Amino acid sequence: MENAQKVRLGRSDLHVTPICLGTMTFGEQVGEGDAHAILERALARGVNFLDTAEMYAVPARKETFGATETIIGNWFTRHPGVRNKVVLATKVAGPSRGMPWVREGAGMTANDIVASCDASLKRLRTDVIDLYQIHWPERNAPAFGSIYFNPSKDRPAEQQTPILEQLQAMDRLVKAGKVRYIGLSNETPYGVHEFVRLAEAHGLPRVATVQNVYCLISRALENGLDETMYRLGVSLLPYSPLGFGLLTGKYDQSGITGPDAPKGARIASYESVRKQRWGRPEALAAARRYNALARRHGLTPTRLALAFCYTKWQVASTIIGVTSLAQLDEDLDAWGTTLSPDLLAEIDAIRWELRDPAQ
Fold first, then answer.
1. Who contacts 87 (Cβ-Cβ below 8 Å, separation ≥6)?
2. CA neighbor of 59 nearest in space, from 92, 29, 85
3. Residue 247: partners with Cβ closer than 8 Å, 6 or more residues away
4. How far is it, in rounded angstroms, from Cα 100 to Cα 103?
5. Any domain includes 253
């Protein structure tokens, strides 16, 4: 990993390592001291790309809102000069989704975007965010395991913030020197097209990236979003490449709940996580198939799952999340693993049978 060639994000001038350190465990599962050790190890091993969000730590709670950004900001303060060595990405939360501590009201206005950015800058102890992303759509759109668009959930137009207005808010931040480039997350093909179309029509900041789930048990973006991003010159930052731990093999024997489930694991510990796509029985069943396939080919499940993302043409930089130095090293050591055509064909055969149970 240390010598990996950097990749360009979209049409921006951001050049990042093909592995990004995600930090949503900092402040919940990982204390500040251990988080700083993980950050230092990642930097020493060549990673120059960090991703966080105002909502983190996860699972989202009032008590830990903003904690991850604060931990990273403290790290920057302790190590002068480090900030200039990394590309820093964070996110503005979309509509509250039952989190009133994020902001007042149910939406995400232009003023909300600006206020959230200012708060993130303060917590992160920095003057500029390299990549500022909208964490999930402001409009009604399927996300976080919802697979169907439901028009009946649309709000009246006067209760929504149009995409153009969101872009204009981002433009204010870019012109103020607070943000360099913008991105999206948990988006659909329509959303990506509309953000790019309006940006080009009105001379506003162009989306550089989209951060969506992508892993062996959730490949729905290959059903059209990948073409959208390719043709529009927008880069993919896949999150949850290990399927929230299902693709590590640690739940193969025990399941995700019960007396034998791994202690302290997120999906076993937090009901809110299990209620999303990762808690579906079909997701675990599919993960077990891929994990068994990995072992038959002499690979660990983790190495297979990560190599799948690391080597896909759709992927720019894969976001990994860890809770220990050992996990970090394992994920980074998987870089450079190649998958044979026969193995890739077996992967596709399983997907053809089981589809995307964690979509």
1. 14, 15, 16, 48, 49, 50, 130, 131
2. 29
3. 215, 216, 217, 241, 287, 290, 291, 301, 302, 304, 305
4. 6
5. no
**Residue 353 maps to a domain:** no
How far is C-alpha 220 from the geometric centre of its chain's CA atoms? 15
From first to last of its 359 residues, the chain has per-residue pLDDT tens of: 888 999 999 999 999 999 999 999 999 999 999 999 999 999 999 999 999 999 999 999 999 999 999 999 999 999 999 999 999 999 999 987 778 899 887 779 999 999 999 999 999 999 999 999 999 999 999 988 888 999 999 989 888 999 999 999 999 999 999 999 999 999 999 999 999 999 999 999 999 999 999 999 999 999 999 999 999 999 999 999 999 999 999 999 988 887 777 876 777 666 666 678 999 999 999 999 999 999 999 999 999 999 999 999 999 999 999 999 999 999 999 999 999 999 999 999 999 999 999 99
Measured between alpha carbons, how far is 136 from 186 in angstroms, rounded to an integer? 5
CATH assignment of the domain containing 93: 3.20.20.100
Handedness of CA 330, 307, 313, 144 (dihedral sign): negative
Tell me the catalytic residues.
56
> Does a structural domain hold residue 297?
no
| Whether 283 contacts 354, CB under 8 Å | no
For 72, the token pair is 């990273």
| Cα 245 from chain centre | 14
How many domains, the chain? 1
Residue that is written with structure tokens 């039952």 in the block? 98
Instruction: Note the pLDDT of residue 203.
Output: 98
What distance in Å separates the CA atoms of residue 109 and residue 90, rounded to the nearest whole number? 18
Distance of CA 72 to the CA centre of its chain: 17
Evaluate whether 248 touches 294 at the Cβ level (below 8 Å).
no
Cβ neighbours of residue 270 closer than 8 Å, sequence gap 6 or more: 59
Distance CA 359, CA 354 (A): 12
Q: How far apart are CA 116 and CA 170, in angstroms?
A: 11
Domain span holding position 182: 7-248+306-337
